[in-house]
Write a structure and sequence with these properties.
With 292 residues, the protein is α+β, with helices and mostly antiparallel strands. The chain has a domain at 79-221. Helix content is 36%, strand content 26%. It has helices at residues 17-38, 45-77, 120-124, 223-232, 256-291, and strands spanning 78-82, 85-86, 89-90, 97-100, 103-115, 131-139, 142-151, 165-172, 177-185, 197-203, 209-215. A five-stranded antiparallel β-sheet has the order 1-8-9-10-11. The chain has a four-stranded antiparallel β-sheet with strand order 4-5-6-7, with no helix packed on it. A hairpin with a 2-residue loop joins strand 6 (131-139) and strand 7. It starts with 16 loop residues before the first helix and ends with a helix. Keywords: Membrane, Transmembrane, Transmembrane helix. The chain crosses the membrane at residues 46-65, 224-243, 255-276.
Length: 292
């Protein structure tokens, strides 16, 4: 894709159960290391507990901070909008032909005779099962890319191509350039999230076309692509640039108690333990002087 944003910080941290266990074990090792390095300075139980709370909070807080930083970076540099306007308002593509900045973008649907598995929204709305078609994209009458299968929406509400295809306008405010971006999901609804795939086709102002395949596993290599996928609603669920921590459904435990609560308690306990340790030393010194 012509437009891109450098990806800062470290590589992606997966969210598997094994790695979550490693984080806790790593937090314990960090606490032990700090205790050993601190020698007699780190002895109070509250200090040790506070260090442990801080250690288990550092990784998720770092991941959250990194996601927020990248998101602000993208929002500051790019303006993104739907190219299609339904009822006068920008929305997800719901037509087979659209004129955008002097380019005619079309979709050609070839029926496969197959139906997609019944979706919950079709059941609730008494809609028909989605038809699976081979979708061919055309720009100014010329075929581009390969024809890939998608499921047309059988619902009376929503877009014909919702969650599968959208056309966006992306403006780079730094260079004052605008390009047309077509985002299409390649993986069907039954695929696990870690196996999701998309293709992103970019049309520059001079008509130059470029295509790139994006995979969920390696999405951190192209943060702008992640932003485009989320904006186009072709990701099925919202995802992060490196980690999905900011996109989990919030609860009292997460993120209130963990990691924000554990980090706050960690700071309090470390300071309290340090204060009590110093007071204990002062009392011991005073008792020694009294004996003399």
């Amino acid at each position: 894709m012509p437009f891109s944003v450098p990806h800062p910080f470290f590589r992606d941290s997966a969210n598997t159960a094994a790695e979550r266990r490693n984080r806790v074990c790593g937090a314990y090792r960090v606490t032990v290391w700090l205790t050993e390095k601190g020698g007699s300075k780190v002895k109070h139980p509250l200090t040790l507990f506070g260090l442990f709370c801080l250690a288990i909070s550092i990784v998720p807080l770092f991941l959250m901070a990194r996601e927020t930083y990248i998101n602000n970076l993208l929002f500051g540099r790019y303006d993104i909008a739907h190219a299609y306007k339904g009822d006068g308002f920008p929305s997800v593509l719901d037509t087979q032909k659209i004129e955008v900045n002097g380019f005619t973008i079309e979709t050609r649907e070839k029926p496969t005779g197959r139906k997609a598995p019944e979706a919950w929204w079709n059941t609730e709305e008494n809609g028909e099962a989605d038809d699976i078609v081979k979708l061919q994209l055309l720009v100014n009458g010329k075929e581009i890319s390969s024809a890939d299968e998608i499921a047309l929406s059988g619902s009376d509400s929503g877009s014909r191509y919702w969650s599968w295809l959208d056309v966006l306008l992306v403006k780079d405010k730094k260079n004052d350039e605008e390009q047309i971006t077509i985002v299409q999901r390649l993986s069907d609804d039954s695929v696990m999230q870690e196996n999701y795939r998309w293709k992103i086709i970019s049309i520059a102002e001079d008509g130059e076309l470029s295509e790139e395949e994006i995979q969920y596993r390696t999405r951190s290599e192209n943060p702008l692509a992640v932003r485009l996928i989320n904006f186009s609603e072709t990701g099925l669920i919202s995802m992060g640039y490196y980690s999905d921590l900011l996109h989990y459904y919030p609860s009292l435990f997460y993120p209130v108690l963990y990691p924000f609560g554990t980090a706050a308690f960690g700071v309090i306990f470390v300071l309290l333990g340090f204060f009590l340790q110093r007071r204990k030393k002062r009392n011991a010194a005073a008792a020694s002087r009294a004996l003399l």
